[in-house]
Design goal:
- The complex is a heterodimer.
- By secondary structure, chain A is mostly helical.
- By secondary structure, chain B is of the alpha/beta class.
- Chain B contains five helices and six strands, in the order βαβαβαβαββα.
- Chain B has a six-stranded mixed beta sheet, with helices on both faces.
- In chain B, a hairpin with an 8-residue loop joins strand 5 and strand 6.
- In chain B, helix 1 packs across helix 5.
- The longest helix of chain B is centred in the N-terminal third of the chain and has 16 residues.
- Chain B is globular, with a radius of gyration of 15 Å.
- In chain B, about 45% of the residues are buried.
- Classes of the chains: A mainly alpha, B alpha/beta.
- The interface between A and B is medium-sized, with 19 and 24 residues.
Chain lengths: ~250, ~160
Amino acid sequence: MSETITLEPVLDGLRRWLPVAIEGADAEGVHQVRIASRRLGVWLALAGRRALADDVRWLRRTAGEVRDLDVLLPLSLPDPLRTELRRRRERARSALVDDLEGPRCAGLVRALEHLPPMSVRRAHAGVERLLVRVARRGERVDAERKCSADQRVRLHALRRALRRLRYAREWLGERDGTLKRLQVALGDLNDLDQLQRRLGLCAARDELATFERDLARRTDEAHALALSSWRRARGHVLDLAVGGSR
Amino acid sequence: MHLHLVRHAAATDRSVDLPDDGRPLTRDGRRRFRRGVRGLAALDVRYDLVVHSPLLRAVETAELLAGLAAELRVDERLAQPPSRQLIGWLGTLAGEGHDSVALVGHQPWLGELGALLLTGSSESASAFPLKKGGVLWLEGEPVPGALTLRAALTPAILRALG
């Protein structure tokens, strides 16, 4: 096995998907740009690089604004909400295209091309820190009252830490189906929470009362499922945290 | 706005084996610039924003400034001759409340930018020499000819302060 890890595979993907995201016909373009920016962010963190981290975060956020709406719009939605989300998506897309065609994005891709690779040893040390962080965030989930709003906040924090851990391990060539399944369950909860937040942006709230009640019920169910997924995966995460990724 | 034009620290020489974009800082260049950054800290310099060229030597120089910066940002325009768009963007940054900004880049372009901002013309760029790891400190509204020169901080001065 090589002693170093280059970011070239993900950077290559970013270069391929940027024009697709700019062109806009295929939503996968924006999706892949966001995924690439997350993976690059994890690589930079593992490599201990401060420069370019803010730029990668910026890329993730600008793509994320559009991607979140791309995920929500295909759902069964009442018309006032769909109209509002479409309007927001148009605005977000326009901002995204400006950003992707601008000098910051061009500079980011060019700078990433020449970063030296990081050592495998350094990456393993980073994964071990992330494992401890996931375990701690899981403890905070368990410490909250079951299905409370506070627990939901803790589940979102667990989801974010878990995603970083998964990407970090993938940089080392390690795949983990258990963590992936847990992340999917947590992601489903996040999607419904996102929709609830956007409901708050909609003016025609009276028309949305039935939808809002149904959405709250579905979110509670997703919360329970996410919690149950975490409890099934907890032993696996704690074993990893104790044993490390090697 | 306080605008610092920072030339990247000393980097490896050009070679056929290494593209110019990918030339890293030398060990000595890093060590010297770290001392220079302590000199900036001793002057109470803190940046709202450090913008840097994408070339590796500028990326690594910006990283060494990170402890003094709220945010780092890469920009392709700092690897090119100064443009109206770049100067216009500096005006936008000032309007957004970025009061203290560093631009990390390369000669001759930083010198040209400095001359343009100080005198309205880039023709006198050679009058503003900028050594590797040095800083030109400008102040004022980022419009051609409207800034004043607060200080020309050579690397030796910054190291002495640090």
